[in-house]
Structures are given as structure tokens and as C-alpha cells.
TrEMBL record:
Keyword Isomerase: no
Protein name: NADH dehydrogenase
Keywords of the record: FAD, Flavoprotein, Oxidoreductase
Species this protein is from: Paenibacillus endophyticus
Family in the record: Belongs to the NADH dehydrogenase family.
Domain FAD/NAD(P)-binding, chain residue ranges per copy: 4-319
CC cofactor: FAD
Molecular function GO terms recorded: NAD(P)H dehydrogenase (quinone) activity
InterPro entries referenced in this protein's UniProt entry, alphabetically: FAD/NAD-bd_sf (IPR036188), FAD/NAD-binding_dom (IPR023753), NADH-Q_oxidoreductase (IPR051169)
Its EC number(s): 1.6.99.3
Presence of keyword Flavoprotein: yes
SUPFAM superfamilies assigned: FAD/NAD(P)-binding domain
Length: 393
């Protein structure tokens, strides 16, 4: 009898699980259902460009129905409310209950506000297409308000967190805002663009030479970096810093970190600080009929004590391992252990600049080659999921 595979999440982990499982399992062997809160698979690695208005929404929001159209995968657009692994059921926000033989949880991560007063209520985040659209509109509205009132807080943007999300976003603003200001009759010199990082340096993932390169390039384009100082409070129109300074700003974008998805943390699956613990074959350590892919799992290298980072490239690779292992669980054979391949890390600094490493820190890229390589890596991903076809039709 056909087994019921239920996949929660249509991001990198969930989509790649579905595509890979279907390669190995016919519709007679398994029915596959994917539940996602949006009808689209979102290319979150490019959201900073949507926020900065340098890419169209269609390029970062690909309809799941198109990507999975000929794969006999059911797509349910709904939000997961509760996972009941002991009853083999998942409750959705609409009230619908989905049953399964095997579950895949790929629900990603959530923004971590670290309990900083006022931050959640007064900041914008960059986790989805709708968040990116909100940022773009908010910035434009504040600039319009500045034009009328001359209120400096409306001409000040603070990005909290200097990881890749924060720096890529600030890079996009640095490129795009001069043009936006020109079109609104505002002097770009009136705009203050801050990136505040609690740690001693932004982009700590990169070697110093690339960090210096990124900072110099962005400072030249008007970005003010404040490092070794944490944001301690936010209001509608200001950001307080640990050193006692206050920045008057009505645009605060928080990119300070992520945490496990609370739906997963409270599900009863074995977990470690809100992220599910997994076996080397990516099964829950408490429930062998539940697999995990992406940020909602915590995966350690064999013998290592620091988990792998929550990145899109690892979620994609985990999805492929899970997709294969689902077929093994149903048809027999030996499951694959998850062994990540680190192709490198590339960060854009606006449209024509970037920094990156390829294969560990062995090869370093900067400038246009890094930016082009990032572009190419996105095209490679889209081609892998047949997204280029989905974009064109
Ligand atoms: P992150 O956790 O990597 O960075 C958050 C930064 O915010 C940290 O440097 C932290 O020190 C800082 N921070 C925390 N609290 C603060 C405070 N109170 N005040 C000021 N700064 C504070 O988060 P991210 O940038 O969203 O990245 C999440 C994951 O996704 C990472 O693994 C990252 O590598 C990956 N990512 C990759 C790409 C890419 O490959 N181009 C792009 C975006 C994200």
C-alpha cells in the first residue's frame, strides 16, 4: 500500500526532500504532501535585493505548484500549528489534520530578539518575501516623510546585526538609496545608514582581509559601522546602544540572529535549545519515523561539538539526504549518513561588489568576481530545482 509522506515546509530543506524522494519513489509507492505557509518557494538568499528594490518579486518567489507540478506532489498552503509525533498527526492553522506514515520537518528558523526591550515591536526583519516588501515600502515611506518634515529620524536607517544578512542588506541600500533619493528630490548626504554589530567585527565568518575589504567598500558608499557595541533597546523612533549612545531612527531592521522554530521545540521531538536532535541519517533521535532538514535540526559533525551553521546550502543538502533516506525506509537498503559539502560562502556588497571564500578559506574572492560568483550560485540552485523553467512560464 502507498505510504503517506508528509513534508512540513517548502523552503530549501522541504523542497529538496520532495524532489529527491520523488526521484526514488513512484506515486504508487508513496504519496507526498508538502505543507507550506506560502504558495511559493522563496529564495531567501536573495531577499536583501527585493528589500532594496533591485530584483523582481517573481525572481525570489517561485510557485511550488510549478516547481512540483509534474512530480505528483500535493501542495497544501497552510501554517503548521502543532506536531503530534506520538499520534502521527499534524494540526494546521485551518483546523485541518494531516496524518502520516513518515514525517519530514523542515520548518526553518525564527528571528531571535534575545529579549531586547522594544525590539520585536519596533523592528522589521528579513525572513520572507513579505518582510522584504515591508522593508522596501517602509524605507520609501520614511523618505517621503523626511521630505515633508525634515525629521532626521526618518532619514536614518539602522541595521542591527553585522552577519551576512545585515551586511548584504546594508550593501543593497548603499547602492540603491542614492537613486531613490534623487527621484524624491532628497540629498543622499542627508541619509544616515548604520550597521550595528555587538561583536568586534562584522562578517566574522570571513578572514580579516575580506572583512576589511567589505567594510572599506561600504564605508566609501556611506555606511557607518559601529562594532563591539550591542543594541540594548528599541523604540518606534530610536535605538539605544550599550555604550549609552542613542540613534534617532524610525527604521530599525533586525538581523541579529535566529533560533529554532517554536512549533518544533514544543512538539515532543527530542530537542536541544529548540532545534531537533538528529541521528547521522537525519532522523529524530526520539522518533525514527520523523526526519529533519534545515535550520530546525541541530546537526553536529562526527566527534565535533559545534553544530553546523543554519545555512541554505546545508538545508538543500540535508533535503537531498532525507529524500533518499525516505525511499530506503520504504523500500529497504542502507540509509545515507549526512555528510555536508562546503562549497564556500559568498556575500554581496551591493550589485557590483562582494566577498567570498571557496572551499573553506582556501580561495578568496573579492569585487566583481565574488558578486558574479554569487549570481552564478543562485542560477545553479534555480537550475537544480528547475526554477528557471518555472520563472520563464
Ligand atoms: P548571524 O547570527 O550570522 O549574525 C547576526 C549578528 O548579529 C552576529 O554577528 C551577532 O553578533 C549580531 N548581534 C547579535 N545581537 C546583537 C545586538 N544586540 N546588537 C548588535 N548586534 C548583535 O545571522 P544572519 O546574518 O541572519 O545569518 C544566519 C545564518 O544564515 C548564518 O549561518 C549565515 O552564514 C547564513 N547566511 C548566509 C548568507 C550567504 O551565504 N550569503 C546570507 C545570509 C545568511
Amino acid at each position: 500500500m502507498s505510504k503517506q509522506i508528509l513534508i512540513l515546509g517548502g523552503g530549501y530543506g522541504g523542497l529538496l526532500t520532495a524532489l529527491t524522494a520523488r526521484k526514488h519513489l513512484s506515486a504508487a509507492e508513496a504519496s507526498i504532501t508538502i505543507v507550506n505557509r506560502f504558495p511559493t518557494h522563496q529564495i531567501i538568499t536573495e531577499l536583501h535585493r527585493l528589500a532594496g528594490d533591485t530584483i523582481a518579486e517573481q525572481a525570489v518567489a517561485l510557485p511550488l505548484s510549478k516547481l512540483l507540478g509534474d512530480k505528483q506532489v500535493n501542495v497544501v498552503v497552510d501554517t503548521v500549528k502543532e506536531i503530534k509525533p506520538n499520534e502521527k498527526q499534524v494540526v494546521l492553522s485551518s483546523g485541518q489534520v494531516q496524518k502520516y506514515d513518515t514525517l519530514v520537518v523542515a520548518l526553518g528558523s525564527e528571528t531571535n530578539y534575545f529579549g531586547i526591550p522594544g525590539l520585536e515591536e519596533n523592528s522589521l526583519v528579513l525572513k520572507s518575501v513579505s518582510d522584504a516588501n515591508k522593508i522596501r515600502k517602509h524605507v520609501e515611506d520614511r523618505l517621503d516623510a523626511y521630505k515633508k518634515s525634515g525629521n532626521k529620524a526618518d532619514a536614518t536607517i539602522v541595521v542591527g546585526g553585522g552577519g551576512l544578512t545585515g551586511v548584504e542588506l546594508v550593501g543593497e541600500f548603499a547602492d540603491r538609496l542614492p537613486e531613490v533619493c534623487r527621484s524624491k528630490g532628497i540629498d543622499f548626504n542627508d541619509i544616515s545608514l548604520y550597521c550595528v554589530e555587538a561583536g568586534p567585527a562584522v562578517l566574522p565568518i570571513f578572514p580579516k582581509v575580506l572583512i576589511d575589504r567589505a567594510v572599506t567598500s561600504l564605508e566609501k558608499r556611506g555606511v557607518n559601522f559601529i562594532t563591539s557595541v550591542a543594541i540594548t533597546e528599541a523604540t518606534k523612533s530610536s535605538v539605544s546602544l550599550k555604550d549609552g549612545r542613542t540613534i534617532e531612527s524610525s527604521t530599525i531592521i533586525w538581523t541579529g540572529g535566529v533560533k529554532g522554530n517554536p512549533v518544533v521545540g514544543s512538539s515532543g521531538l527530542a530537542e536541544d535549545r529548540g532545534r531537533s536532535t538528529v541521528t547521522p541519517t537525519l532522523q529524530s533521535t526520539s522518533h525514527a519515523d520523523v526526519f529533519l532538514a534545515g535550520d530546525c535540526a541541530v546537526v553536529f559533525p562526527e566527534g565535533g561539538d559545534r553544530p553546523y551553521p543554519p545555512t541554505a546550502q546545508l538545508a538543500w543538502q540535508m533535503g537531498e539526504t532525507v529524500g533518499y533516506n525516505l525511499a530506503v525506509q520504504i523500500k529497504g537498503g542502507v540509509m545515507d549518513k549526512f555528510v555536508p559539502v562546503f562549497s564556500g560562502t559568498l556575500g554581496s556588497l551591493g550589485r557590483k561588489d562582494g566577498v567570498g571564500t571557496i572551499g573553506g578559506n582556501a580561495t578568496q574572492l573579492k569585487g566583481l568576481p565574488a558578486s558574479l560568483m554569487k549570481e552564478a550560485s543562485n542560477i545553479r540552485y534555480l537550475s537544480h530545482i528547475h526554477g528557471l523553467f518555472a520563472l520563464a512560464h
